[in-house]
Specification:
Layout: H1 6-30, H2 36-57, H3 72-93, H4 98-104, H5 107-119, H6 126-142, H7 147-152, H8 156-182, H9 188-203, H10 217-243, H11 246-253, H12 256-270, H13 282-300
Helix pairs in contact: 1-4, 1-10, 1-11, 1-12, 2-3, 2-9, 2-10, 3-8, 3-9, 4-12, 5-8, 6-13
Amino acid sequence: MNQSNWKVGLPLALITAFMWALLPIALKGLLDTITATTATWYRFVGAAVLAGGYYGWSRRLNLRQLFERALLPFTLCAVAGLLTNYLTYATGLHHITAGAAQIVIQLAPLMLLISSVLWLGEHFSPRQWLGVVMVATGLPLFFNQRLPDLISGADGEYLLGLGYIVIAAIGWAVYGFFQKKILSRATPQDLLVLIYLVGTLCFLPMAEPLSVAGLDWLGWALLLFLTANTLIAYGAFTKALAAWEASRVSATLALVPLLTLAISALIGIFWPDYIEVEPLNWISWLGAAAVVCGSLFAAIGKGR
């Protein structure tokens, strides 16, 4: 067993948290200029070239095993799940705020846990059930200022965006569920590189690659950041898990939604024209904290 080293694990976990917290903010700023499909396609192209090139050059890539008869159905479902997640998340983000997207996407790990209980025979501890209740309670609290319009359907565009983010959460849960079955025979990088390659091909007919010619310097900076974000975040995440306990890494990453809300609030003060910021009162912050803590309890509830 590797010795825990928080001096290495904590900074890497914080890098991952900040990268994931900044992701919807950067993506939101880009969606006024290019389509969600185009932004998603460029993310896949960058990841396919960089990750595929690196693992291929170092001879650490073996995609053939993912197409074996025993794994192929799981591979197809995992690929479809993550492609759905990427596209619907970006599409939903076009209609709602970055902070709201990060709160709602917390349903994804919860759905994965529930599916594992239903179909993999895993068991929930009382603390994990408490986490589910906290998330279910925290969501309406977070959206307390929008609830009347959402219930009446008066804010149809925002409701549509929430629907897309829920679909994105389902897509991620599907990916995570079938990834569990795949990783007993294949490596995570094999699956992710395959997904990047398939996403590049699938989204190309719907994307508008030449539309980036109209981007200004900020747009190009955001696009480059989004392209590198996935690889940097997942690389830091993997190394953090190797150096530090998984429960402590998970606890650090649970801060992601709150970081997104805090950074968005600061941007709203100093750069109000950049993106729309979610209106928050003390009840909203209480709901956000409940969602974050509930997600954390559900994820590591069996730990001591």
